[in-house]
Write a structure and sequence with these properties.
about 350 residues, mainly alpha, 19 helices
Length: about 350
């Protein structure tokens, strides 16, 4: 009975293709959310019965769902179990587990093994002729390269250029939007702000053309950071406000956490360190609950907060941070939006 149940949900997972419009994504999200516990049960059964290829395929097929629904922490735990040295996996199962484990963890702590692991994933999918998987692997490799200390910007831009070529050939709109955002990140790291804004405007336009609210929220978040980096906190606040409002329409808590971090940096840049601490603490709580943390050189909020606290005020910030960690997420979003207006983008 359990085997039939698990196989039914494995088939369900293999049926959806990545949605091409925002409305299709919302419809699929709603259907899969209703079956979330059953999908978890299928994974548990396959793990218990050592059907590791089935675990990897089910997880890989629904990667976008686990991400949007804020369950990447669970995915990391599942995939880490597959990488135990004692297990004998086929090549595809091992590569999927390697890609998902490393793409989720690289933002947490520096790890020299991440870049080489993700490069191996790129080579595997390229050899298999799986262009969509190769493009995703290239993006995650680029993010890991930018997360190095010091960042490997030349290598990252090369990875992203290859990924952009693939997603343009495939005509995959979400990928086209996301690769441009990562290229903008590289441009920001080099101080090429005009180029960054052009790429982010293109990304936002692509997301809006298919009513992709997740892509729209991610683009708005990065536009907010770009505004902060050029010394425009009012423009940044408007972008983060629109991002939070957009994220609230589809309930993506990780995206809300990104928005709260952005608003925290705006508050810090304008001298309100207590508010900055409260919003930052609330974002941390979301990440901890989801099993995801942030850090490293890829972080944008870290460097802005460090600059704001350079002349003192750490105690005030930390006091707010402790308060924010225990606050309700809805209350923190309301606080962040108080007195703000969305961007006229």
């Amino acid at each position: 009975m359990q085997e039939r149940h698990a196989r039914f949900y494995a088939a369900l997972a293999s049926t959806p293709v990545p949605p091409s419009t925002g409305s299709e994504r919302v419809e699929q999200m709603a259907r899969l959310a209703d079956e979330r516990d059953e999908l978890r049960g299928a994974v548990d059964h396959f793990l218990a019965t050592r059907q590791y290829a089935a675990v990897a395929q089910l997880t890989w097929s629904l990667y976008w769902f686990w991400w949007v629904s804020g369950q990447l922490g669970e995915v990391r735990r599942w995939m880490s179990r597959l990488l135990a040295p004692s297990l004998d996996l086929d090549d595809r199962t091992r590569i999927i587990a390697l890609l998902l484990t490393n793409s989720i963890r690289f933002g947490e702590t520096p790890d020299v093994g991440v870049v080489s692991a993700l490069a191996e994933c790129v080579q595997y999918f390229r050899a298999e002729g799986d262009r969509l998987a190769e493009s995703l692997s290239l993006v995650t490799l680029a993010i890991a390269q930018m997360s190095e200390s010091p960042p490997e910007l030349d290598a990252a831009e090369q990875s992203l250029a290859q990924s952009l070529e693939l997603v343009e050939e495939l005509g995959e709109p979400f990928g086209r939007s996301m690769v441009r955002i990562m290229l903008a990140r590289a441009a920001m790291a080099r101080g090429r702000m005009d180029e960054a804004f052009e790429l982010l405007d293109e990304s936002l336009a692509i997301a809006r053309s298919i009513d992709d609210r997740l892509g729209e929220a991610i683009a708005l978040n990065h536009l907010g950071w770009a505004r902060l980096l050029i010394g425009d906190p009012d423009g940044a606040r408007a972008c983060f406000t629109e991002q939070l409002l957009t994220s609230s329409t589809f309930g993506h808590e990780e995206s809300l956490a990104y928005g709260l971090e952005g608003m925290s940096a705006v508050a810090a840049a304008t001298g309100d360190l207590e508010r900055a601490g409260v919003l930052f603490g609330a974002a941390e709580t979301v990440r901890m609950r989801k099993g995801l943390t942030t850090g490293g050189s890829f972080s944008l909020h870290g460097r802005i907060l460090e600059r704001a606290l350079a002349n003192g005020g750490t105690e005030i910030f930390e006091g707010g941070r402790r308060s924010g960690r225990t606050a309700e997420l809805a209350d923190m979003v309301e606080l962040a939006l108080a007195g703000s207006a969305p961007a006229d983008a």
